[in-house]
Amino acid sequence: MMPAARESLLEAASTALRRRPWPTVRMVDVAADAGVSRQTLYNEFGSKDGLARALVRRETDAYLAGADRALTEGGLPSLAEWTVGSARTNAVIRAVLTGCWSPRLPAPGLAAVPSTSTVPAQRRADGPLPTPAELVALVRERAAALRGGPGLAKEEALRTRHECELALRLALSCVLAPAGDGGVGRLVREALEGAARQAGR
Prior knowledge:
single chain; 0% strand; elongated
């Protein structure tokens, strides 16, 4: 199957999920909305659970790509704002970040499932999905790598990882309890400035 067709199916599934609870989303409707046959949908994803896993993987990948962009463009405050904004507008990302899966959402298990798919993207989706702690660790390490590069001294690398984790943990707290004036970006800036003062930097 062409990657564009797989993306169309995932987009159709995402649109359906915004309109109604996942248990009521029908594979035949997703296929029709994407303009392909139901058999093609099953060939690509194997089952509704396979489609759910692929949808969660797609949304997680989009969140990670956006996190990289936000960090590159505006540093840790932007990363935190992207995280909060993504969770606010995307129920799947909110669930992936918090571990709170409502009955309206697909809830594929996080463990890998046996995959007989010949589609590489589906074999990846059938692999393990990240827990909230694993996702935070992944974003922290990616952020630290983007901010510091390979030449940092050990102490500086540890400080960079700590700052990234601090920004992410503040963002996650604001997913659950929204920040006031200035939003999460202000909180992150103030926390980093405070940490720098304590360290005498």
